[in-house]
Design brief:
By secondary structure, the chain is an alpha/beta fold. It has two helices and three strands; from the N terminus they run βαβαβ.
């Protein structure tokens, strides 16, 4: 199954890489990462550029 998480805040998680791995193991293939500030949005973009399954 290929699920999509349509709203998350990976910048608020201590270890986003572990969260991404757990999401993949649970069948989540695409994640929409939302920023709540300019800095958080920049972090969201960085994560999306480094991770194929994450979009902003």
């Amino acid at each position: 199954m290929n699920l999509t998480d349509t709203h998350c805040h990976l910048d608020m998680i201590e270890d986003a890489k572990i969260a991404l791995l757990r999401a993949k193991e649970a069948g989540v293939g695409t994640i929409i990462n939302v920023g709540t500030s300019i800095d958080a949005s920049r972090q969201s973009i960085e994560i999306a550029e480094e991770t194929d399954s994450v979009d902003v």
